[in-house]
C-alpha cells in the first residue's frame, strides 16, 4: 500500500543515522563502516530489497552476493558485523548533459568500482516512494536497500584490506535527478511551509556525508532542452511540436514569475508537472547556488559538456584530480579518452533535425540572464554559452 507523507525531515535524518554512522573507517578512502547484525543471518539478506524487485540485473547480483553472505561477516567483541559503504562521490546532474558518458569513463579507472544501476534516484525519489518522476509516492525504499547496491564494492574493499592496512577503492553513483528534482517536498511538508521547500536533497546528503564530492556536468540550456524533449518525448515529435510546447511552457513559467519568486517557481512541482517541456532543469544557477549554500565550493566540480566532448581526456583528468585518484599510465588514459561516447542521440531523433530558429530565439532570451548569473557565480564566462 502507498505510504503517507507524514514523516518529517528530522525523523528522516534520525532514520538515516540509525543505519549509517557519523564517522567512517579511517583507513578506507570510501565512506564505509561495520554494521552490527542481529537476528537470523542465514536468511536471504536481499530477498526483500525493492531495488532487486525493480531491476533484474540487480536481482542477479544480489543472488550472487547471498551465496557468500555469511563468509563476508566478521566478528568483533562476539558480535557479527558486515562492511557497508556509501558512495564516495555523486554525479548529480544534469539530464542530457553527459552524465552517462562521465560515469562510463570513470569506471575505467582501476580504483573506481561502479555497480548498477547508474541512477538509483534514491535521494530525490525512491526514499519517498516515488518510482518515476511525476508519480505519487508509493512504498518508500529504506536506506539499507540503497546501501545494498554498494555491497559488491564493500566486498572488494574488504578483500583489498586482507594483508593491507588501507584501501583506495571508491564507488559512486550518477542519478541525474539529484541536483534538481525536489518534487517530493510537497508530499513531505504538505502546504504548511509556503511557496518554497524548506529543505532539499542536498541538506539530507550533507547531514549524512558532509565531506562527499559532487560532480555536475552542464550544457547550453537551449540545446539541453531540445535533447531532453527528443529523448523523453513520445509520439509525434517534431520541431513544430517542440516549438509549441516551448511557447506553452514559457507562458506558464512567466505567469508563475508574476506571482512568485524565481526559486518558488523552479521548485513548484505542480507547475513542473504541468509544463510539457522541462524548462526548470536548465535554470542551473538556482540549483548551483542552493548546493553551494550547503557544500563548500571545493566539493563541487562543475563541467561543461561542450568541453568534455571536445577533449574528454582533459575533463576526465580534472575529475580524477578532484577525486584524488591515482595517476594513470598513458595506455589507460588513451583507453579512457578514446572510449566510445555513451548514450548518444538516437538516429531517429537526429533525423528530426534542429529546432526552429524562432524556438532557439525564444529560449535564448529566456535562459540568457540565468546563464550570465551562473558564469558570475562560477567565475567562468564560458558558462554563458554566448547566449
TrEMBL record:
<dbReference type="GO" id="GO:0019319">
    <property type="term" value="P:hexose biosynthetic process"/>
</dbReference>
<comment type="similarity">
    <text>Belongs to the sulfotransferase 1 family.</text>
</comment>
<keyword id="KW-0808">Transferase</keyword>
<dbReference type="GO" id="GO:0050659">
    <property type="term" value="F:N-acetylgalactosamine 4-sulfate 6-O-sulfotransferase activity"/>
</dbReference>
<dbReference type="InterPro" id="IPR027417">
    <property type="entry name" value="P-loop_NTPase"/>
</dbReference>
<dbReference type="InterPro" id="IPR052654">
    <property type="entry name" value="CS_Sulfotransferase"/>
</dbReference>
<protein>
    <recommendedName>
        <fullName>Sulfotransferase</fullName>
        <ecNumber>2.8.2.-</ecNumber>
    </recommendedName>
</protein>
<feature type="region of interest" description="Disordered">
    <location>
        <begin position="334"/>
        <end position="354"/>
    </location>
</feature>
<feature type="domain" description="Sulfotransferase">
    <location>
        <begin position="208"/>
        <end position="343"/>
    </location>
</feature>
<dbReference type="InterPro" id="IPR000863">
    <property type="entry name" value="Sulfotransferase_dom"/>
</dbReference>
<dbReference type="Pfam" id="PF00685">
    <property type="entry name" value="Sulfotransfer_1"/>
</dbReference>
Amino acid at each position: 500500500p502507498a505510504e503517507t507523507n507524514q514523516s518529517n525531515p528530522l525523523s528522516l535524518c534520525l532514520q538515516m543515522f540509525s543505519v549509517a554512522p557519523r564517522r567512517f573507517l579511517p583507513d578506507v578512502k570510501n565512506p564505509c563502516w561495520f554494521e552490527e547484525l542481529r537476528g537470523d543471518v542465514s536468511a536471504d539478506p536481499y530477498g526483500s530489497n525493492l531495488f532487486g524487485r525493480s531491476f533484474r540485473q540487480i536481482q542477479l547480483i544480489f543472488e550472487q552476493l547471498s551465496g557468500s553472505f555469511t563468509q563476508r561477516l566478521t566478528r568483533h567483541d562476539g558480535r557479527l558485523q558486515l562492511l557497508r559503504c556509501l558512495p564516495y562521490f555523486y554525479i548529480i546532474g544534469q539530464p542530457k548533459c553527459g552524465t552517462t558518458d562521465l560515469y562510463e569513463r570513470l569506471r575505467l579507472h582501476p580504483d573506481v568500482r561502479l555497480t548498477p544501476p547508474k541512477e538509483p534516484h534514491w535521494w530525490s525519489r525512491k526514499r519517498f516512494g516515488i518510482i518515476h518522476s511525476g508519480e505519487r509516492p508509493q512504498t518508500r525504499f529504506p536506506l539499507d536497500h540503497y546501501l545494498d547496491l554498494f555491497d559488491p564494492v564493500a566486498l572488494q574493499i574488504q578483500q583489498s584490506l586482507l594483508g593491507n592496512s588501507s584501501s583506495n577503492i571508491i564507488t559512486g553513483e550518477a542519478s541525474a535527478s539529484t541536483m534538481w528534482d525536489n518534487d517530493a517536498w510537497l508530499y513531505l511538508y504538505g502546504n504548511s511551509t509556503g511557496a518554497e521547500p524548506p529543505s532539499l536533497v542536498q541538506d539530507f546528503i550533507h547531514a549524512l556525508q558532509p565531506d562527499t564530492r559532487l560532480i555536475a556536468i552542464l550544457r547550453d540550456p537551449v540545446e539541453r532542452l531540445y535533447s531532453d524533449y527528443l529523448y523523453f518525448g513520445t509520439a509525434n515529435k517534431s520541431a513544430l511540436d517542440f516549438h509549441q510546447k516551448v511557447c506553452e511552457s514559457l507562458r506558464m513559467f512567466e505567469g508563475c514569475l508574476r506571482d512568485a519568486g524565481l526559486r518558488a517557481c523552479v521548485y513548484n512541482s505542480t507547475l513542473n508537472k504541468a509544463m510539457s517541456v522541462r524548462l526548470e532543469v536548465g535554470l542551473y544557477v538556482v540549483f548551483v547556488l542552493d548546493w553551494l549554500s550547503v557544500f563548500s565550493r571545493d566539493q563541487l566540480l562543475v563541467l561543461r559538456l561542450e568541453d568534455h566532448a571536445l577533449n574528454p581526456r582533459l575533463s576526465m583528468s580534472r575529475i580524477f584530480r578532484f577525486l584524488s585518484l591515482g595517476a594513470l599510465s598513458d595506455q589507460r588514459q588513451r583507453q579512457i579518452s578514446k572510449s566510445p561516447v555513451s548514450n548518444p542521440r538516437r538516429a531517429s531523433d537526429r533525423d528530426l533535425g534542429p529546432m526552429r530558429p524562432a524556438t532557439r530565439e525564444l529560449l535564448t532570451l529566456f535562459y540568457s540572464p540565468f546563464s550570465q548569473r551562473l558564469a558570475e557565480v562560477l567565475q567562468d564566462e564560458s558558462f554563458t554559452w554566448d547566449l
